[in-house]
Specification:
By secondary structure, the protein is of the alpha/beta class. The protein has a single domain, classed as Vaccinia Virus protein VP39 (Rossmann fold, 3-Layer(aba) Sandwich), CATH 3.40.50.150. It is about 30% helix and about 30% strand. It has six helices and seven strands. The chain has a seven-stranded mixed sheet. The longest helix has 17 residues. It is globular. The N and C termini lie far apart (about 35 Å). S-adenosylmethionine binds next to helix 2.
Length: about 210
Amino acid sequence: MSGKHFDKAAAGWDQKQRRVEMAAKIAAAISNTLPLNNKMTALEYGCGTGLVGLALAPQLLTLTAVDTSTGMLEVLTQKIKSEQITNVTPLRLDLSQESLPDKFDLIFCAMTLHHIKEADQLLARFCDMLADGGYLAVADLKTEDGSFHGQEVDGVMHHGFNPVELMTTLTKRGLEQVAVQEVHSLVKTNDAGVERAYPVFLLTGRKG
Ligand SMILES: C[S@@+](CC[C@H](N)C(=O)[O-])C[C@H]1O[C@@H](n2cnc3c(N)ncnc32)[C@H](O)[C@@H]1O
């Protein structure tokens, strides 16, 4: 899936109920796991149309919602306008090419890491961008056989992740309280016509 794919998919993105349900589960898990509060500045990476971020924004001071897809950001901008949301700022940025000088109390990233070739480098960047005591939350697919995206291979850089390996990566980067939990099981019919479940994990940690 290229950036163009996400631009094209943006207008109809929220019409797939399974995406909306998954985002709600991920947002609820982040909210139930981490001590969110209305003094926190947050960054969401790969925000899409804001399904996860807009669910969490009422609990936060500010949310910088980052994505590389103009189409996704346009849909999010429309929602911000129509719902008169004042604490969410959409931002087009690719953290694998550019950086932001700001530090955040919370960084979260849902179903985006598998689109990033240098996933370890991005996780390292997230850790650098956390304020002291700040929290990281990453939700993504557990290692799968490639059938999740099927023929849509363009832009899919990883067939999920081994969450235990990611825990080790974050611990090596100095995060504390690193933990993982399964937060959802997405049921999807793959290209072979077989319906199967794809587990989704939430990885969390705190910068000491
Ligand atoms: C599967 S969607 C998930 C969207 C949203 N987090 C959700 O759960 O509904 C992946 C998102 O990552 C974005 N994305 C892909 N590559 C990216 C990159 N290098 N940097 C930032 N965002 C990226 C896409 O534009 C898309 O919005």
